[in-house]
Design goal:
Arc Repressor Mutant, subunit A, about 40% helix, five-stranded parallel β-sheet, alpha/beta, single chain, 2 domains, about 230 residues, Rossmann fold
């Protein structure tokens, strides 16, 4: 059965272009031209990936992302014509997994969709000999069930937050640069702004650290990158 992509874009030319190219790649494609239709279609169609424009009629892409993230863990790729860093960061903080700024390369967009699907389809069992339950300080990371608890309480992580935490947990104590994390966790050679990693780290700390201002698990190594220790 083909993976299903929901394309939410109010520009009919771009919407049709994306639909055509995604269908050429073998995906099933559902479209929506405004925010309200996006939520309705996502609930009904249960897509495997959502491509979501930021600027939409009736309801903004940010609000759509906020609503959907409360209900489902589907990977979300946000599209924006804006160049302001703030809009991209807000989108990432409310649950988008990645963003692309218009105009963009269709080839790169398709690569990112493939990467998102690859990450979300990962077999939910650890490799032979690997632990499926990792304990780091007051965290328990269940790799098989994609669940994280802190002091027994379940944490609501987005798919990308879980991927980032799981990767660092499997490589506890090792320091990774932002570029390495983009390649390993996001699943492609990302040539853009590494702020994506910083935003996800900051948001992850809000959920896993007792005091995000003084983290004891997810540590910044100045001038290098990040590591998980404990």
């Amino acid at each position: 059965m083909a993976d299903k992509v929901l394309v939410v874009e109010d520009d009919p030319n771009l919407r049709n272009t994306l639909k055509y190219n995604l269908e050429r790649e073998g995906y099933g494609v559902v479209t929506a031209a405004d925010g309200e239709a996006a939520i309705e279609n996502a609930r009904r169609e249960k897509p495997d990936v959502i491509i979501l424009d930021l600027m939409l009629p009736k309801m903004s892409g940010l609000e759509v992302c906020r609503v959907l993230r409360r209900e489902m863990t589907v990977p979300i790729l946000m599209l924006t014509a804006k160049t302001e860093e703030t809009d991209k960061i807000i989108g990432l903080e409310i649950g988008a997994d990645d963003y692309m700024t218009k105009p963009f390369s269709l080839r790169e967009l398709l690569a990112r969709v493939r990467a998102m699907l690859r990450r979300s389809r990962m077999v939910e069992t650890a490799p032979p000999g690997d632990k499926t339950l990792l304990k780091i300080n007051d965290l328990e990371i269940d790799l098989a069930r994609h669940k994280v608890t802190r002091q027994g309480a379940a944490l609501g992580l987005t798919p990308k937050e879980f991927d980032l935490l799981a990767f660092l947990a499997r490589n506890r104590g090792f320091v990774f640069s932002r570029e390495q994390l983009l390649e390993k966790v996001w699943g492609y050679d990302y040539a853009g702004n590494t702020r994506t990693v910083d935003v996800h780290v900051r948001w992850l700390r809000q959920k896993i650290e007792a005091d995000p201002r003084q983290p004891r698990s997810l540590i910044t190594i100045r001038g290098t990158g990040y590591k998980l220790e404990g």
